[in-house]
Amino acid sequence: MQHAVKLSLLSLLASAGAEETVLGAYIYHRHGDRTPKAISPALLTTLGYEQVHASGQYWRDRYLSGPQKISGVSEDVVKLSQIAVTASVNDVLQNSAMGFTQGLYPPVGQEVQTLANGNNVQAPLNGYQLIPVNTISSGASPEAATWLQGDSDCSNAKISSNSYFDSKEYQDLSASTKDFYASLNPVVNATLPATQVNFKNAYTVYDLINVATIHNQTIPSSDLLTNSTLLQLHTLANAHEWGLAYNASSPMRAVSGMQLAGEILDYMNSTITSGLKGSTSNKIGVQFGAYATFLSFFGLADLPKASTDFTGIVDYASSMAFELFTTADVSTSNGFPKSADDISVRFLFHNGTASNTSTPSVYPLFGGSATSLSWKDFASSMSKFAIRTNEEWCTACGNSTGTCAAYAPSSNNANSNEEGKGGSHMSAAIGGVIGAFVTLAVVMAALLAVMLIGGVRFASKKTLAGVRNGSAVGEEVKTKA
Protein backbone atom coordinates (compact mmCIF):
# COMPACT_ATOMS: atom_id res chain seq x y z
CA MET A 1 0.00 0.00 0.00
CA GLN A 2 1.79 3.12 -1.22
CA HIS A 3 0.28 6.53 -0.54
CA ALA A 4 0.54 8.99 -3.38
CA VAL A 5 -1.19 11.83 -1.51
CA LYS A 6 0.32 12.92 1.77
CA LEU A 7 1.34 16.02 3.69
CA SER A 8 4.87 16.64 4.88
CA LEU A 9 4.95 16.09 8.61
CA LEU A 10 7.94 18.37 9.00
CA SER A 11 6.25 21.27 7.24
CA LEU A 12 3.10 20.74 9.28
CA LEU A 13 4.99 20.80 12.54
CA ALA A 14 6.93 23.87 11.46
CA SER A 15 3.69 25.72 10.78
CA ALA A 16 2.25 24.61 14.09
CA GLY A 17 4.78 26.69 15.98
CA ALA A 18 6.92 26.02 19.03
CA GLU A 19 4.01 26.59 21.38
CA GLU A 20 2.30 23.33 20.40
CA THR A 21 1.99 20.79 23.21
CA VAL A 22 1.10 17.12 22.65
CA LEU A 23 -1.26 15.92 25.39
CA GLY A 24 -1.79 12.26 24.55
CA ALA A 25 -2.09 9.72 21.74
CA TYR A 26 -3.87 6.56 20.68
CA ILE A 27 -2.02 4.19 18.34
CA TYR A 28 -3.64 1.38 16.36
CA HIS A 29 -1.03 -1.04 15.01
CA ARG A 30 -0.90 -4.07 12.75
CA HIS A 31 1.18 -7.08 13.78
CA GLY A 32 4.57 -7.80 12.29
CA ASP A 33 5.53 -10.36 9.65
CA ARG A 34 4.08 -13.82 10.30
CA THR A 35 3.75 -17.26 8.80
CA PRO A 36 0.83 -17.78 6.36
CA LYS A 37 -2.73 -18.11 7.60
CA ALA A 38 -3.26 -21.15 5.41
CA ILE A 39 -0.83 -23.09 7.62
CA SER A 40 -2.35 -22.94 11.09
CA PRO A 41 -1.41 -21.65 13.57
CA ALA A 42 0.10 -18.47 12.15
CA LEU A 43 3.16 -17.39 14.14
CA LEU A 44 5.10 -14.16 14.49
CA THR A 45 8.47 -14.45 12.75
CA THR A 46 11.82 -13.03 13.83
CA LEU A 47 11.42 -10.44 11.08
CA GLY A 48 7.98 -9.56 12.46
CA TYR A 49 9.39 -9.20 15.97
CA GLU A 50 12.07 -6.85 14.67
CA GLN A 51 9.49 -4.78 12.75
CA VAL A 52 7.22 -4.09 15.72
CA HIS A 53 10.19 -3.47 18.03
CA ALA A 54 11.58 -0.90 15.57
CA SER A 55 8.16 0.73 15.36
CA GLY A 56 8.06 0.95 19.15
CA GLN A 57 11.42 2.71 19.06
CA TYR A 58 10.10 5.26 16.57
CA TRP A 59 7.02 6.09 18.64
CA ARG A 60 9.29 6.29 21.70
CA ASP A 61 11.43 8.89 19.94
CA ARG A 62 8.31 10.82 19.02
CA TYR A 63 6.20 10.69 22.18
CA LEU A 64 8.63 9.99 25.03
CA SER A 65 11.89 11.73 24.22
CA GLY A 66 11.54 13.87 21.09
CA PRO A 67 10.26 17.37 20.27
CA GLN A 68 6.68 16.05 20.29
CA LYS A 69 7.06 14.47 23.71
CA ILE A 70 3.70 14.03 25.43
CA SER A 71 3.31 16.50 28.27
CA GLY A 72 3.68 14.86 31.68
CA VAL A 73 4.61 11.39 30.41
CA SER A 74 7.35 9.34 32.07
CA GLU A 75 10.26 9.08 29.68
CA ASP A 76 12.38 6.13 30.79
CA VAL A 77 10.63 4.18 33.53
CA VAL A 78 7.09 3.21 32.62
CA LYS A 79 4.19 4.34 34.77
CA LEU A 80 1.42 1.86 34.16
CA SER A 81 -1.22 4.47 34.96
CA GLN A 82 -0.10 6.35 31.84
CA ILE A 83 -0.30 3.56 29.28
CA ALA A 84 -2.87 0.97 28.20
CA VAL A 85 -1.88 -1.75 25.74
CA THR A 86 -4.49 -4.11 24.30
CA ALA A 87 -4.64 -6.84 21.67
CA SER A 88 -7.14 -9.42 20.50
CA VAL A 89 -6.76 -12.96 21.80
CA ASN A 90 -4.24 -14.23 19.29
CA ASP A 91 -0.58 -15.27 19.50
CA VAL A 92 0.57 -13.07 16.60
CA LEU A 93 -1.16 -9.96 17.93
CA GLN A 94 -0.26 -10.49 21.60
CA ASN A 95 3.40 -11.15 20.80
CA SER A 96 3.53 -8.17 18.44
CA ALA A 97 2.18 -5.94 21.20
CA MET A 98 4.85 -7.17 23.62
CA GLY A 99 7.59 -6.61 21.05
CA PHE A 100 6.33 -3.07 20.49
CA THR A 101 6.34 -2.22 24.21
CA GLN A 102 9.96 -3.41 24.46
CA GLY A 103 10.87 -0.79 21.87
CA LEU A 104 8.67 1.87 23.48
CA TYR A 105 10.06 1.30 26.98
CA PRO A 106 13.37 -0.60 26.71
CA PRO A 107 15.19 -2.16 29.69
CA VAL A 108 16.39 0.39 32.25
CA GLY A 109 19.77 -1.20 32.98
CA GLN A 110 21.03 -3.65 35.55
CA GLU A 111 19.00 -2.43 38.52
CA VAL A 112 20.21 -3.88 41.82
CA GLN A 113 18.11 -4.11 44.99
CA THR A 114 19.66 -4.68 48.42
CA LEU A 115 17.59 -6.82 50.79
CA ALA A 116 17.36 -6.52 54.58
CA ASN A 117 19.80 -9.40 55.01
CA GLY A 118 22.37 -7.62 52.89
CA ASN A 119 21.96 -9.75 49.78
CA ASN A 120 21.88 -7.98 46.44
CA VAL A 121 19.29 -8.97 43.81
CA GLN A 122 19.90 -7.97 40.20
CA ALA A 123 16.95 -7.37 37.90
CA PRO A 124 16.73 -10.04 35.17
CA LEU A 125 17.02 -9.32 31.46
CA ASN A 126 18.97 -6.11 32.03
CA GLY A 127 16.04 -4.43 33.76
CA TYR A 128 13.35 -5.53 31.33
CA GLN A 129 10.17 -3.50 31.97
CA LEU A 130 6.99 -5.48 32.48
CA ILE A 131 4.08 -3.86 30.62
CA PRO A 132 0.85 -5.90 30.62
CA VAL A 133 -0.94 -6.52 27.33
CA ASN A 134 -4.65 -6.71 28.05
CA THR A 135 -6.95 -8.78 25.89
CA ILE A 136 -9.76 -7.10 24.04
CA SER A 137 -12.80 -8.96 22.72
CA SER A 138 -13.83 -7.95 19.22
CA GLY A 139 -16.25 -10.83 18.74
CA ALA A 140 -13.69 -12.69 16.64
CA SER A 141 -10.07 -13.81 16.51
CA PRO A 142 -9.10 -11.65 13.53
CA GLU A 143 -5.81 -13.35 12.77
CA ALA A 144 -7.29 -16.84 13.04
CA ALA A 145 -9.99 -16.23 10.43
CA THR A 146 -8.99 -16.72 6.79
CA TRP A 147 -11.47 -14.11 5.59
CA LEU A 148 -13.12 -11.08 7.08
CA GLN A 149 -16.08 -11.72 9.40
CA GLY A 150 -15.42 -15.45 8.99
CA ASP A 151 -15.27 -15.89 12.76
CA SER A 152 -17.36 -12.87 13.73
CA ASP A 153 -20.00 -13.03 16.43
CA CYS A 154 -21.82 -10.04 14.94
CA SER A 155 -24.76 -11.47 12.99
CA ASN A 156 -25.50 -8.41 10.87
CA ALA A 157 -21.83 -7.88 10.01
CA LYS A 158 -21.53 -11.47 8.87
CA ILE A 159 -24.68 -11.17 6.73
CA SER A 160 -23.42 -7.94 5.20
CA SER A 161 -19.99 -9.34 4.36
CA ASN A 162 -21.50 -12.49 2.87
CA SER A 163 -23.70 -10.39 0.60
CA TYR A 164 -20.51 -9.24 -1.16
CA PHE A 165 -20.33 -12.68 -2.73
CA ASP A 166 -23.68 -12.01 -4.41
CA SER A 167 -22.62 -8.63 -5.81
CA LYS A 168 -22.02 -8.00 -9.50
CA GLU A 169 -18.52 -6.73 -8.71
CA TYR A 170 -17.58 -10.01 -7.06
CA GLN A 171 -19.25 -12.18 -9.71
CA ASP A 172 -17.47 -10.34 -12.53
CA LEU A 173 -14.05 -10.56 -10.90
CA SER A 174 -14.58 -14.20 -9.99
CA ALA A 175 -15.38 -15.09 -13.59
CA SER A 176 -12.71 -12.94 -15.24
CA THR A 177 -9.87 -14.21 -13.00
CA LYS A 178 -10.66 -17.92 -13.17
CA ASP A 179 -7.87 -18.70 -15.63
CA PHE A 180 -5.40 -16.46 -13.79
CA TYR A 181 -5.83 -18.34 -10.52
CA ALA A 182 -5.82 -21.72 -12.27
CA SER A 183 -2.39 -20.86 -13.68
CA LEU A 184 -1.04 -20.54 -10.14
CA ASN A 185 -1.96 -24.07 -9.05
CA PRO A 186 1.61 -25.38 -9.53
CA VAL A 187 2.87 -22.75 -7.08
CA VAL A 188 0.48 -23.47 -4.20
CA ASN A 189 -0.82 -27.02 -4.78
CA ALA A 190 1.30 -28.37 -1.90
CA THR A 191 -0.89 -26.36 0.49
CA LEU A 192 -4.14 -25.48 -1.29
CA PRO A 193 -6.30 -27.79 -3.42
CA ALA A 194 -7.17 -26.55 -6.91
CA THR A 195 -10.79 -25.98 -5.85
CA GLN A 196 -9.63 -23.26 -3.44
CA VAL A 197 -7.35 -21.39 -5.80
CA ASN A 198 -9.78 -18.76 -7.01
CA PHE A 199 -10.96 -15.22 -6.36
CA LYS A 200 -13.14 -16.34 -3.47
CA ASN A 201 -9.91 -17.10 -1.63
CA ALA A 202 -8.00 -14.13 -3.07
CA TYR A 203 -6.41 -13.13 0.22
CA THR A 204 -5.47 -16.67 1.23
CA VAL A 205 -3.71 -17.26 -2.10
CA TYR A 206 -1.99 -13.87 -2.00
CA ASP A 207 -0.93 -14.33 1.63
CA LEU A 208 0.56 -17.76 0.99
CA ILE A 209 2.59 -16.56 -1.98
CA ASN A 210 3.55 -13.26 -0.34
CA VAL A 211 4.99 -15.06 2.70
CA ALA A 212 6.85 -17.44 0.41
CA THR A 213 8.48 -14.58 -1.50
CA ILE A 214 9.70 -13.12 1.81
CA HIS A 215 11.00 -16.31 3.45
CA ASN A 216 11.43 -19.17 0.97
CA GLN A 217 14.66 -19.42 -0.98
CA THR A 218 12.98 -21.82 -3.39
CA ILE A 219 9.35 -21.72 -4.55
CA PRO A 220 7.68 -24.36 -6.78
CA SER A 221 7.21 -23.05 -10.33
CA SER A 222 8.66 -19.71 -9.28
CA ASP A 223 8.98 -18.72 -12.94
CA LEU A 224 5.23 -18.11 -12.88
CA LEU A 225 5.62 -15.40 -10.24
CA THR A 226 6.56 -12.48 -12.43
CA ASN A 227 6.35 -8.92 -11.14
CA SER A 228 3.15 -8.49 -13.12
CA THR A 229 1.62 -11.61 -11.57
CA LEU A 230 2.56 -10.58 -8.04
CA LEU A 231 1.07 -7.13 -8.62
CA GLN A 232 -2.16 -8.66 -9.92
CA LEU A 233 -2.36 -10.99 -6.92
CA HIS A 234 -1.99 -8.03 -4.56
CA THR A 235 -4.49 -5.89 -6.46
CA LEU A 236 -7.11 -8.64 -6.47
CA ALA A 237 -6.58 -9.31 -2.75
CA ASN A 238 -7.06 -5.59 -2.07
CA ALA A 239 -10.34 -5.55 -4.00
CA HIS A 240 -11.57 -8.72 -2.29
CA GLU A 241 -10.80 -7.59 1.26
CA TRP A 242 -12.10 -4.06 0.75
CA GLY A 243 -15.35 -5.53 -0.56
CA LEU A 244 -15.68 -7.61 2.61
CA ALA A 245 -14.58 -4.86 5.02
CA TYR A 246 -16.61 -1.85 3.95
CA ASN A 247 -19.65 -0.88 1.94
CA ALA A 248 -21.22 2.57 2.16
CA SER A 249 -24.74 1.21 1.65
CA SER A 250 -24.25 -1.55 4.24
CA PRO A 251 -22.32 0.08 7.11
CA MET A 252 -22.55 -2.90 9.49
CA ARG A 253 -19.94 -4.59 7.32
CA ALA A 254 -17.46 -2.29 9.05
CA VAL A 255 -18.37 -3.27 12.61
CA SER A 256 -14.73 -3.74 13.65
CA GLY A 257 -14.00 -0.14 12.61
CA MET A 258 -17.03 1.01 14.59
CA GLN A 259 -15.74 -0.74 17.70
CA LEU A 260 -12.27 0.74 17.22
CA ALA A 261 -13.78 4.23 16.90
CA GLY A 262 -15.56 3.73 20.22
CA GLU A 263 -12.37 2.55 21.91
CA ILE A 264 -10.41 5.52 20.56
CA LEU A 265 -13.05 7.96 21.77
CA ASP A 266 -13.24 6.39 25.22
CA TYR A 267 -9.48 6.42 25.77
CA MET A 268 -8.92 9.94 24.43
CA ASN A 269 -11.82 11.19 26.51
CA SER A 270 -10.17 9.65 29.59
CA THR A 271 -6.95 11.47 28.70
CA ILE A 272 -8.80 14.79 28.55
CA THR A 273 -10.86 14.16 31.68
CA SER A 274 -7.76 13.22 33.66
CA GLY A 275 -5.77 16.15 32.35
CA LEU A 276 -8.43 18.71 33.16
CA LYS A 277 -8.36 17.41 36.74
CA GLY A 278 -4.58 17.85 36.92
CA SER A 279 -3.73 14.15 36.55
CA THR A 280 -1.01 12.74 34.28
CA SER A 281 -2.68 9.36 33.73
CA ASN A 282 -4.02 7.85 30.49
CA LYS A 283 -1.41 9.33 28.17
CA ILE A 284 -0.80 6.59 25.59
CA GLY A 285 -3.28 4.02 24.33
CA VAL A 286 -1.94 1.25 22.09
CA GLN A 287 -4.00 -1.46 20.40
CA PHE A 288 -2.83 -4.23 18.10
CA GLY A 289 -5.21 -5.66 15.53
CA ALA A 290 -5.57 -7.04 12.03
CA TYR A 291 -5.66 -5.30 8.65
CA ALA A 292 -9.44 -5.82 8.50
CA THR A 293 -10.04 -3.18 11.14
CA PHE A 294 -7.80 -0.71 9.33
CA LEU A 295 -9.88 -1.14 6.17
CA SER A 296 -13.19 -0.82 7.99
CA PHE A 297 -12.08 2.32 9.80
CA PHE A 298 -10.66 3.84 6.61
CA GLY A 299 -14.06 3.48 4.97
CA LEU A 300 -16.02 4.84 7.92
CA ALA A 301 -13.68 7.85 8.28
CA ASP A 302 -13.94 8.59 4.54
CA LEU A 303 -10.17 8.35 4.13
CA PRO A 304 -10.33 7.12 0.49
CA LYS A 305 -11.15 10.75 -0.38
CA ALA A 306 -7.65 11.63 0.82
CA SER A 307 -6.14 8.78 -1.20
CA THR A 308 -7.55 5.75 -2.99
CA ASP A 309 -4.67 3.81 -1.46
CA PHE A 310 -6.72 3.70 1.74
CA THR A 311 -8.75 0.93 0.08
CA GLY A 312 -5.78 -1.47 0.12
CA ILE A 313 -4.41 -3.96 2.66
CA VAL A 314 -1.88 -2.28 4.95
CA ASP A 315 1.59 -3.80 5.24
CA TYR A 316 2.92 -5.61 8.28
CA ALA A 317 3.67 -3.33 11.26
CA SER A 318 1.63 -0.44 9.85
CA SER A 319 0.36 2.07 12.38
CA MET A 320 -2.05 4.97 12.65
CA ALA A 321 -2.12 7.47 15.47
CA PHE A 322 -4.57 10.00 16.83
CA GLU A 323 -2.81 12.86 18.61
CA LEU A 324 -4.32 15.22 21.13
CA PHE A 325 -2.54 18.57 21.12
CA THR A 326 -3.02 22.21 22.04
CA THR A 327 -1.56 25.58 21.10
CA ALA A 328 -2.83 27.20 24.29
CA ASP A 329 -0.45 28.34 27.03
CA VAL A 330 -0.07 25.42 29.44
CA SER A 331 2.85 26.76 31.45
CA THR A 332 0.64 27.58 34.43
CA SER A 333 -1.73 24.59 34.32
CA ASN A 334 0.31 21.43 34.88
CA GLY A 335 1.01 21.04 31.17
CA PHE A 336 -2.66 20.81 30.22
CA PRO A 337 -5.09 23.46 28.91
CA LYS A 338 -7.90 24.71 31.11
CA SER A 339 -10.66 23.71 28.70
CA ALA A 340 -11.36 20.93 26.21
CA ASP A 341 -12.20 23.70 23.75
CA ASP A 342 -8.45 24.36 23.48
CA ILE A 343 -7.68 20.78 22.39
CA SER A 344 -7.30 19.56 18.79
CA VAL A 345 -6.79 16.18 17.11
CA ARG A 346 -4.77 15.09 14.11
CA PHE A 347 -4.52 11.75 12.34
CA LEU A 348 -1.25 10.16 11.22
CA PHE A 349 -0.65 6.99 9.24
CA HIS A 350 2.38 5.03 8.13
CA ASN A 351 2.26 1.99 5.86
CA GLY A 352 4.75 -0.53 7.18
CA THR A 353 7.31 -0.02 9.95
CA ALA A 354 7.69 3.62 10.95
CA SER A 355 11.21 4.92 11.49
CA ASN A 356 13.10 8.19 11.71
CA THR A 357 13.88 7.87 7.99
CA SER A 358 10.31 6.95 7.03
CA THR A 359 7.92 8.85 9.25
CA PRO A 360 4.12 8.82 9.41
CA SER A 361 2.18 11.35 7.35
CA VAL A 362 -0.79 13.48 8.34
CA TYR A 363 -4.11 13.02 6.50
CA PRO A 364 -7.48 14.77 6.73
CA LEU A 365 -10.33 12.77 8.25
CA PHE A 366 -14.02 12.47 7.36
CA GLY A 367 -13.67 13.56 3.73
CA GLY A 368 -12.55 17.09 4.61
CA SER A 369 -9.35 18.97 3.92
CA ALA A 370 -8.34 20.11 7.42
CA THR A 371 -5.32 18.32 8.86
CA SER A 372 -6.47 19.00 12.41
CA LEU A 373 -9.89 19.15 14.03
CA SER A 374 -11.13 20.54 17.31
CA TRP A 375 -11.76 17.82 19.89
CA LYS A 376 -15.45 18.67 19.77
CA ASP A 377 -15.69 18.25 15.97
CA PHE A 378 -13.56 15.10 16.00
CA ALA A 379 -15.65 13.48 18.74
CA SER A 380 -18.88 14.47 16.99
CA SER A 381 -17.80 12.95 13.66
CA MET A 382 -16.50 9.74 15.28
CA SER A 383 -19.66 9.35 17.34
CA LYS A 384 -21.73 9.09 14.17
CA PHE A 385 -20.46 5.55 13.64
CA ALA A 386 -18.70 4.57 16.88
CA ILE A 387 -19.91 1.65 18.99
CA ARG A 388 -19.07 2.31 22.63
CA THR A 389 -21.15 -0.07 24.76
CA ASN A 390 -22.20 -3.71 24.81
CA GLU A 391 -25.80 -2.66 24.34
CA GLU A 392 -24.95 -0.64 21.22
CA TRP A 393 -23.02 -3.61 19.82
CA CYS A 394 -25.82 -6.08 20.50
CA THR A 395 -28.45 -3.80 19.00
CA ALA A 396 -26.40 -2.98 15.91
CA CYS A 397 -25.44 -6.62 15.35
CA GLY A 398 -28.98 -7.91 15.88
CA ASN A 399 -27.74 -10.38 18.50
CA SER A 400 -30.13 -11.48 21.25
CA THR A 401 -28.47 -14.49 22.91
CA GLY A 402 -25.63 -14.90 25.39
CA THR A 403 -24.52 -11.59 26.87
CA CYS A 404 -26.85 -9.82 24.43
CA ALA A 405 -29.95 -11.44 25.97
CA ALA A 406 -30.02 -8.65 28.55
CA TYR A 407 -30.64 -6.12 25.78
CA ALA A 408 -33.09 -8.14 23.67
CA PRO A 409 -36.60 -6.66 23.26
CA SER A 410 -39.06 -8.27 25.70
CA SER A 411 -42.79 -8.87 25.33
CA ASN A 412 -43.39 -6.28 28.03
CA ASN A 413 -41.97 -3.61 25.76
CA ALA A 414 -44.86 -4.13 23.36
CA ASN A 415 -47.28 -3.07 26.09
CA SER A 416 -45.16 -0.24 27.45
CA ASN A 417 -47.16 2.43 25.65
CA GLU A 418 -50.46 1.14 27.07
CA GLU A 419 -49.00 0.83 30.55
CA GLY A 420 -47.72 4.35 30.34
CA LYS A 421 -51.24 5.67 29.89
CA GLY A 422 -52.20 4.87 33.48
CA GLY A 423 -54.76 2.45 34.95
CA SER A 424 -54.33 -1.07 36.24
CA HIS A 425 -52.85 -3.52 33.72
CA MET A 426 -51.71 -7.11 34.03
CA SER A 427 -48.66 -8.45 32.19
CA ALA A 428 -49.05 -10.38 28.96
CA ALA A 429 -47.79 -13.56 30.65
CA ILE A 430 -50.36 -13.42 33.48
CA GLY A 431 -53.14 -12.48 31.07
CA GLY A 432 -52.28 -15.49 28.94
CA VAL A 433 -52.49 -17.90 31.86
CA ILE A 434 -55.88 -16.56 33.00
CA GLY A 435 -57.19 -16.73 29.44
CA ALA A 436 -56.14 -20.35 29.15
CA PHE A 437 -58.02 -21.35 32.31
CA VAL A 438 -61.16 -19.51 31.18
CA THR A 439 -61.04 -21.28 27.82
CA LEU A 440 -60.53 -24.66 29.50
CA ALA A 441 -63.53 -24.09 31.81
CA VAL A 442 -65.79 -23.27 28.85
CA VAL A 443 -64.69 -26.40 26.96
CA MET A 444 -65.24 -28.67 30.00
CA ALA A 445 -68.72 -27.25 30.61
CA ALA A 446 -69.71 -27.85 27.00
CA LEU A 447 -68.34 -31.40 27.08
CA LEU A 448 -70.25 -32.21 30.27
CA ALA A 449 -73.48 -30.97 28.69
CA VAL A 450 -72.97 -33.24 25.68
CA MET A 451 -72.38 -36.25 27.94
CA LEU A 452 -75.53 -35.65 29.97
CA ILE A 453 -77.80 -34.98 27.00
CA GLY A 454 -76.37 -37.39 24.42
CA GLY A 455 -75.13 -40.22 26.59
CA VAL A 456 -71.59 -39.99 25.39
CA ARG A 457 -69.09 -42.13 27.35
CA PHE A 458 -65.27 -42.13 27.45
CA ALA A 459 -63.67 -45.42 26.39
CA SER A 460 -60.71 -46.86 28.28
CA LYS A 461 -57.22 -47.13 26.70
CA LYS A 462 -57.61 -50.90 26.50
CA THR A 463 -60.82 -50.53 24.54
CA LEU A 464 -59.24 -48.05 22.14
CA ALA A 465 -56.20 -50.26 21.69
CA GLY A 466 -58.43 -52.91 20.25
CA VAL A 467 -59.74 -50.72 17.44
CA ARG A 468 -56.58 -48.87 16.33
CA ASN A 469 -53.00 -49.75 15.66
CA GLY A 470 -51.24 -46.73 17.13
CA SER A 471 -51.31 -43.05 17.91
CA ALA A 472 -49.48 -39.98 16.65
CA VAL A 473 -46.75 -38.68 18.94
CA GLY A 474 -46.55 -34.93 19.31
CA GLU A 475 -43.03 -33.58 18.77
CA GLU A 476 -41.70 -30.45 20.39
CA VAL A 477 -40.28 -28.09 17.81
CA LYS A 478 -37.23 -26.22 18.97
CA THR A 479 -35.75 -23.18 17.29
CA LYS A 480 -32.24 -21.89 17.66
CA ALA A 481 -31.71 -18.18 17.73
UniProtKB/TrEMBL annotation:
Keyword Signal: yes
GO molecular function annotations of the record: phosphatase activity
Gene3D superfamilies: Phosphoglycerate mutase-like (3.40.50.1240)
This protein's UniProt keywords: Membrane, Signal, Transmembrane, Transmembrane helix
Extent of the signal sequence: 1-18
Annotated transmembrane regions: 428-453
SUPFAM superfamilies (alphabetical): Phosphoglycerate mutase-like
Pfam families reported for this sequence: His_Phos_2
Record family assignment: Belongs to the histidine acid phosphatase family.
Protein name: Phosphoglycerate mutase-like protein
Organism of derivation: Aaosphaeria arxii CBS 175.79
Lineage of the organism: Eukaryota, Fungi, Dikarya, Ascomycota, Pezizomycotina
